């Protein structure tokens, strides 16, 4: 599986890259047909006027491509590791639902 990680207004550190690879490897270990995965990490530099700090300004987005299907999720949090965790949880739910639907609609051969 090919994982592409991009940063927008953010430098991708080796620790962030390793965190992404570990989380998504665990999530897709039971899916052999994953073609590719794209992860985009960005930081919004907008500041909240009341608290004088950015709130939910670390954004993580991902696209997972399977044959005939594409999954997308986005998550925001105060720090990048939390947004990556939320993103992986959202995608895991989508992939679990997809896997269950495949088990239900498996054609029976005589």
From TrEMBL:
GO terms for cellular component: cytosolic small ribosomal subunit. Keywords: Translation regulation. One of its GO terms (biological process) is negative regulation of translational elongation. GO terms for molecular function: ribosomal small subunit binding. It comes from the Bacteria. Pfam families: Ribosomal_S30AE. Associates exclusively with 100S ribosomes, which are dimers of 70S ribosomes. PANTHER family: 30S RIBOSOMAL PROTEIN (PTHR33231). Belongs to the HPF/YfiA ribosome-associated protein family. Short HPF subfamily. This is Ribosome hibernation promoting factor.
